[in-house]
Design brief:
By secondary structure, the chain is α/β, with parallel strands linked by helices. The chain contains 12 helices and 13 strands.
């Protein structure tokens, strides 16, 4: 990077940090906002656990309800993106008999890496981690106790494989090819009104169970910001999609990069990190055709050819040339024994997973049933009763559900 770019990034980062510090000092003087620790679902192996989180001011964002108005969705989205982080907060974590303490970064983000020093219950995959806020800079008043419990998923020793999946236009419909619909989905919808792709919940549930009813971990990697973490978790719960660690993106400015790294570098780094944490576990990669998932997965597969069981790319209205590009990647990967399938829907991927012995015959029957149910349009009376719908929605767009 040229000197002038380094100078610009350092200057921009300094300006943002000074502004954030000033905003926090003024806010602490005028208001005693409640603080919160927002833990993000973590993961672990047989040696360490990894738990990320953030220290924020609590803006009282409630879980979405199916009768929330567009205005309520917009307000909640604004609160998520206009988050007030607590820079350099000191956080303590307790996992089993081990205690660790660290200082969050300028965005209030922290990442604990804690060694496993005692045997864990082999029948439990979700393990609690107690988090406590110890102190933070520019504090001008007594601090009430701020505590919460985060969780980490540790796959069992008999896990057959892991899954690494994209989110946008792979699990949830975001319409990234249509900017107007993308904006609507991002700002005006919530967990109840955003739509999954047909059959996703049943397919991912089948992959998690495998063929011996074990617990295969699922990781979700996306360039969506951490600010909407709670919205994604609510969406998974409402739609019955298996929960797994989310790897999202920081929107902040640092001395080395402007608004964080690009899509390709971001996802590549996260995927390789997951593979390194589970060196004996093969993985299935799932993405879509709208961005660069095929190229990223191709690069990963060539670095770890013995670790990739299959790659499934959902075809989301690709341009014919884009489809040809993906098929060229698929042909190239065949030479090293890895299948990349460009599939029209979830059932196409599930049928291949069945042939590869990753899911059961019973599971694929359930996936077909769920796809059929998900594809059913809402009745006119259901659409009319939907408080979000307009007359135009009844003809132009899918129902908001």
């Amino acid at each position: 990077m040229t000197n002038w770019k380094n100078i610009f990034l350092e200057f921009t980062s300094d300006v943002e940090n000074h502004f954030d510090n000033l905003k926090n000092q003024i806010s602490h003087l005028l208001h005693r906002h409640p603080l919160m620790i927002q833990p993000y679902l973590g993961y672990g192996n047989d040696q360490h656990i990894y738990l990320r989180g953030r220290v924020l001011k609590d803006k009282g964002i409630e879980s979405a309800k199916d009768n929330d108005t567009l205005w309520q969705n917009l307000i909640n989205t604004y609160k998520r993106y206009e988050s007030d982080e607590i820079p350099h907060a000191i956080v303590r974590a307790k996992f089993g008999d081990h205690t660790a303490q660290l200082t969050a970064d300028e965005e209030g983000m922290f990442l604990f890496e804690i060694p496993i020093t005692a045997p864990l219950d082999p029948n439990t995959f979700m393990h609690p981690v107690t988090l406590e806020l110890i102190d933070f800079p520019h504090r001008h008043h007594d601090m009430p106790q701020v505590q919460t419990v985060g969780h980490v998923i540790i796959p069992p020793s008999n896990a057959q494989f892991g899954v690494i999946s994209d989110l946008d236009d792979t699990v949830v419909q975001t319409d990234v090819l249509n900017l107007l619909k993308l904006a609507r989905n991002t700002f005006l919808r919530n967990a109840h009104t955003r739509l999954p792709f047909e059959g996703v919940a049943a397919f991912y549930t089948a992959l998690r169970a495998g063929t011996n009813n074990t617990y295969n971990p699922i990781f979700y990697v996306s360039s969506s910001p951490w600010n909407i973490y709670d919205l994604i978790i609510d969406f998974f719960q409402v739609r019955g999609i298996p929960i797994g660690p989310l790897m999202l993106k920081n929107l902040g400015i640092s001395p080395t990069q402007f608004i964080d790294s690009g899509h390709h570098a971001h996802k590549f780094k996260l995927i390789t990190t997951i593979l390194k944490h589970y060196p004996k576990l093969p993985f299935v990669l799932i993405g879509d055709s709208t961005q660069h998932d095929p190229e990223i997965y191709d690069e990963i597969a060539r670095l770890y050819p013995q670790r990739i069981k299959a790659i499934y790319i959902r075809s989301v209205n690709p341009h014919p040339e884009r489809a040809r590009e993906i098929l060229r990647i698929a042909d190239s990967l065949k030479t090293i024994g890895i299948d990349l399938l460009l599939v029209p829907d979830t059932v196409g991927a599930a049928e291949d997973a069945l042939l590869k012995g990753m899911i059961t015959e019973e599971a694929i029957m359930q996936i077909r049933v769920e796809r059929t149910e998900d594809q059913k349009p809402a009745e006119k009376i259901e659409q009319l009763l939907n408080p979000h719908a307009t007359e135009q929605d009844l003809y132009d767009d899918p129902p908001l559900a």
